[in-house]
Amino acid sequence: MATMEVLERVGVLVEDNEALDLLSGAGAMVDKQKGRARIPEYLVKDACRKAPSSFDIYTRDMKKIRIGPGKTTISFGAGATYVLDLKTGDPRPATKNDVEQLARLTDAMEHIELCMSPIIQDVTRSLVDVHSAEAMMCNSTKPPWVCPGDARQARYIIEMGSAIAGGLAELQKKPIILGLASPNSPLRLASHDLQIAKEFVSRKLPITFINCPNNAATSPISIAGTIVQTLAECLSMVLVAQLMNPGNPVAAGPSPPITDMKTATACFGAPECALVTAGSAQMMRYYNIPSYASITSSDSIGIDAQTGYEIAWTAQLPMMAGINLVNGIGLIAFCEISSYEKVIIDNEVFGGLKRILRGIEVSDASLAVDAIEAVGPAGHYLSQKHTREQLPKERWFPKISNRLSIAEWKKEKVDLWQRARREVLNILQTHQPKPLEKEKRERIREIVNEAEKAVARS
What is the pLDDT of residues 114-168, one digit of tens each? Predict the structure, then answer.
């Protein structure tokens, strides 16, 4: 298999001596001077056998969220540095208040199960992820999917999660946070990402390995070649995690842009992105590892028709391929901007996609022969008991999609973006997530203050 051939022939650059020693001790061919590890197939397959095929994380109020086969778990999107202002509609730098508001909005979305954060610009730069974690933990019951930029921030965030859970032992039993580290394309396991992985894995906490292979720039231009490299990078991180702690919960997969050959822009809304994520999802299913992908991101800077068709093709194909864990909710403009309105739109999209993926039920009741006989030629089904009974099973009910008559629509002429904005404002005015207990909120604030003091001292 091509991925195993790449790992054996080319290997990966490993910028951490402890990880190199683990790989060498397990049987990888390691060149310490060059930092290169060539990995035999049997090591990867053994790691995949040790890693669980699914795992659970929990909301603050202990509702279980399974990540694994047969389910797509959906998260808000991370990584944007700008937010579309709700009043002006113009991009502006993301703030901690935005994370708080977006966490509250996520808390109200029935199809979005995890929080993530834009990269906030109004806090200490080296503690961005600590402040983001605080904002999410205090403003949503849903688990924060945290992306610490270094091991120090990872430790603070884990301490915050432990404070909410009632100690590290309780956090390990029922994790209320999900970690993230990123192999670098092409074929590089950077020191800081290995150290982040170590912080989570040494504490037996779940973590995702997400790479960003930029097709035609940092990965081959061929879709198959990008998938091969994606798997090599992700599986090498899975191997390191399993060597650190056999059986540690992991998920892995790509957030794959393509290089626009006219503009050199990294695009996340292209159809090729959907092919990479779908192919990677199917291969992760082969390796029995929960799969990840970034989907629904749009390259459009506004909420327009381009946003719609890019959401459609980047979301539906990976979900039909069986993807287990996704983010990208709310992201536009090459993932540089978070949009409150798009959170609402994406939630609507996932409602429809879940209905499609539920498929067609075939049973005596759904085949409706008795109902067809009862109505007969030239009748109607509106008053039939069968219609009332089957309605909840068969129909999905949108919240913001336009289904008005022409006459009704003419009264307002409100487009989808305006309806989404109204819904955002209504939720932010009326929805109050279950509050975090005062003593836990105060302890989290203490941890953030300790982190700030440590940075000031250094």
Answer: 999 999 999 999 999 999 999 999 999 999 999 999 999 999 999 999 999 999 9
Residues 95 and 216 in one domain: yes
Task: Look at residue 84 and give its three-state secondary structure.
Answer: strand
Residue 1 has pLDDT above 90, yes or no: no
Q: Where would I find the H helices in 265-384? A: 271-287, 305-320, 340-358, 364-367, 369-375
Whether the CA torsion 388, 390, 393, 397 is positive or negative: it is: negative
At residue 413 the predicted structure's pLDDT band, cuts being 50, 70 and 90, is confident
Domain span holding position 226: 49-358
* Cβ neighbours for 229, distance < 8 A, ≥ 6 positions apart: 6, 185, 186, 187, 213, 219, 220
pLDDT (average), residues 239-267: 97
Among 342, 347, 340, 348, which Cα is nearest to 425's? 340
Which structure tokens are listed for 57?
Answer: 């994380």
Same domain, 54 and 189: yes
Q: pLDDT at residue 233 above 90?
A: yes
Amino acid sitting at position 257: P
Q: What is the pLDDT of residue 458?
A: 85
Closest to 303 in 3D by CA, of 424, 130, 176? 424
What is the C-alpha separation between 212 and 218, in angstroms, rounded?
Answer: 9
Reported as a single tens digit per residue, the pLDDT across 272-298 is 999 999 999 999 999 999 999 999 999
What percent of the chain is modeled with pLDDT above 90? Answer: 97
Residue 66 falls inside a structural domain: yes
Q: How far apart, in whole angstroms, are the C-alpha atoms of residue 116 and residue 103? A: 8
157, part of any domain: yes
- Nearest in space to 256 (alpha carbons), one of 291, 293, 217: 293
**Domain membership flag for residue 320:** yes
What average pLDDT score do residues 58-62 get? 96
Cα–Cα distance for residue pair 37/236, rounded to 1 Å: 10
| Helix axes 96-108 and 128-139, enclosed angle (nearest 10) | 40
Do 371 and 316 belong together in one domain? no
Q: Which two tokens stand for residue 68?
A: 């694994």
The reply to whether 345 falls in a domain is yes
- For residues 379 and 368, the answer to whether their CB atoms sit within 8 Å is no
- Residue 315 phi, psi (nearest 5): -95, -45
- The two beta strands, 207-211 and 179-181, are parallel
Q: H/E element holding 231?
A: helix 223-244
Number of Cβ within a 10 Å radius of residue 454: 13
